[in-house]
Design goal:
Length: about 325
């Protein structure tokens, strides 16, 4: 019946209503369990990139996966601008879509705008690991970066914990002040701004690094005993300090090795797979233990799994069908004779 209607397009403004933080937590955890069970097939190669400099600074990334348990198959594609100073990855202005097809027939099912699901997935897929790795009763949250990643992490963490103090910093004083004012009102918790990253990190129970910086942002000596540091991008925690943490956990070693900063860390000898405690899927499946001592310092570092993006797009497609949302695009057909 859906094939007769065409291809369902789920636009950004409707995804905001269709996907909640709890939904994102649940779907991300389910997909980690699928990875542990070996029921996900990734594209070969796992990532296709088209990076064009020469005055354009244009970047295409394409990934795909098949999730047997749903079943669902899809391709994720996004395009962004990055000249080293300006990066549009988290902005609505970049192209960001997932295309789903029927895994039994190959017929197109949907095109889903993934700006909202991407932001939620980026935060939820890392924060969910705090169920196993977070402090028992965290009181102080530190946010390094107040953009889309920092905001999503704040929303996810405050859905899981009640903090007495939240600190934040960002590149520009005016953006962190606006962030603190907005979310202090929304959450009923005083959010204080700090001028330096060190002031945010020192003494915090949970720290989130979610910037667009290509430089090293936070330092290992600033992380107190018992803290959990969540790294959502690049080099949020100095790679030289990774081996000094009690546990380091990633979403996927394979996908992280596709990132030049992570590979450089490994190739330089600063960190190795033998020093990795586990992948998050191992915690979800019960194959590895999480936090074992209150004083452990733990790093959660994620790069993002396309399998989770496709699962969330499938969730949005299904929810849109159930609620009559989205708009139908005409499917290809032969012209009438």
């Amino acid at each position: 019946m859906n094939a007769a209607k065409g291809v369902l397009f789920v636009p950004y403004h409707e995804t905001l209503d269709l996907l909640t933080i709890d939904d994102a937590f649940r779907v991300c955890e389910q997909v980690y369990r699928m990875h542990a069970n070996g029921s996900i097939v990734l594209a070969t190669p796992p990532s296709f990139k088209l990076d064009v400099g020469e005055g354009f600074n244009n970047h295409w990334h394409v990934k795909g996966a098949f999730l047997k348990d749903l079943p669902a198959t899809g391709i994720r594609l996004y395009n962004y601008f990055d000249d080293g100073a300006t990066n549009t990855v988290g902005m609505l202005s970049c192209a960001r879509y997932i295309m789903l097809s029927d895994p039994h027939t190959g017929e197109p099912l949907a095109i889903v705008d993934e700006h909202w699901s991407y932001v939620l997935r980026s935060a939820a897929s890392a924060v969910i690991a705090c169920k196993w790795l977070g402090p028992k009763t965290p009181r102080v949250l530190g946010l390094v970066g107040t953009g889309s990643m920092g905001t999503a992490a704040l929303r996810c963490l405050t859905a899981m914990y009640r903090f007495d103090e939240i600190r934040c910093t960002s590149r520009r004083p005016e953006t962190r002040r606006a962030f603190a004012e907005k979310w202090s009102r929304e959450l009923g918790v005083n959010i204080v701004t700090k001028d330096s990253i060190e002031e945010v990190v020192r003494g915090a129970d949970i720290i989130v690094g979610g910037t667009t910086s290509g430089e090293i942002v936070s330092r290992e000596p600033w992380v107190k005993a018992g803290a959990t540091f969540i790294s959502l991008a690049r080099r949020e925690l100095d790679p030289a300090g990774w081996s000094k943490m009690d546990k380091v956990v990633v979403d996927s070693w394979e996908f992280n090795m596709l990132q030049k900063e992570f590979r450089r860390t490994v190739d330089s000898g600063l960190f190795s797979r033998e020093q990795l405690h586990c992948e998050i899927q191992d915690l979800v499946a019960g194959h590895k233990k999480g936090r074992e001592r209150d004083e452990e310092r733990i790093l959660i570092h994620t790069t993002g799994l396309v399998s989770q993006d496709i699962a969330l797009a499938h969730f949005l497609y299904t929810r849109a069908l159930e609620t009559g949302r989205g708009m139908w695009l005409p499917a290809a057909h032969l012209p009438r004779q």
